[in-house]
TrEMBL record:
<dbReference type="GO" id="GO:0022627">
    <property type="term" value="C:cytosolic small ribosomal subunit"/>
</dbReference>
<dbReference type="GO" id="GO:0019843">
    <property type="term" value="F:rRNA binding"/>
</dbReference>
<dbReference type="GO" id="GO:0003735">
    <property type="term" value="F:structural constituent of ribosome"/>
</dbReference>
<dbReference type="Pfam" id="PF00366">
    <property type="entry name" value="Ribosomal_S17"/>
</dbReference>
<protein>
    <recommendedName>
        <fullName>Small ribosomal subunit protein uS17</fullName>
    </recommendedName>
</protein>
<comment type="function">
    <text>One of the primary rRNA binding proteins, it binds specifically to the 5'-end of 16S ribosomal RNA.</text>
</comment>
<keyword id="KW-0689">Ribosomal protein</keyword>
<keyword id="KW-0687">Ribonucleoprotein</keyword>
<comment type="subunit">
    <text>Part of the 30S ribosomal subunit.</text>
</comment>
<keyword id="KW-0699">rRNA-binding</keyword>
<dbReference type="InterPro" id="IPR012340">
    <property type="entry name" value="NA-bd_OB-fold"/>
</dbReference>
<keyword id="KW-0694">RNA-binding</keyword>
<dbReference type="InterPro" id="IPR000266">
    <property type="entry name" value="Ribosomal_uS17"/>
</dbReference>
<dbReference type="GO" id="GO:0006412">
    <property type="term" value="P:translation"/>
</dbReference>
<dbReference type="InterPro" id="IPR019984">
    <property type="entry name" value="Ribosomal_uS17_bact/chlr"/>
</dbReference>
<comment type="similarity">
    <text>Belongs to the universal ribosomal protein uS17 family.</text>
</comment>
Length: 82
């Protein structure tokens, strides 16, 4: 089964080797037929502490690293933007 890849914005980098990423998704409400925005925060592993607040990053699923970390930051996302 392929691993999920999500894109979002870093909202916190206060923890060592961890960033909090806000992922926003848009979908059409089934009854109201209106576009709804829904967001969720994920904690991702950033081994080099290279991502700061405001950066747009891509995260990928991984094996559990800690109690709340099940995602890692894709490093190639930074190289693609440069």
């Amino acid at each position: 089964m392929p691993k999920r890849i999500l894109q979002g914005k870093v909202v916190s980098d206060k923890n060592e080797q961890t960033v909090t990423v806000l992922v926003e998704r848009r979908f059409k409400h089934p009854l109201l037929h209106k576009t709804v925005r829904s967001s969720k925060k994920y904690r991702a592993h950033d081994a080099l502490n290279q991502f700061k607040v405001g950066d747009t990053v891509r995260i990928v699923e991984c094996a559990p690293i800690s109690k709340t970390k099940r995602w890692t930051v894709l490093v190639d996302a930074v190289e693609a933007q440069a």
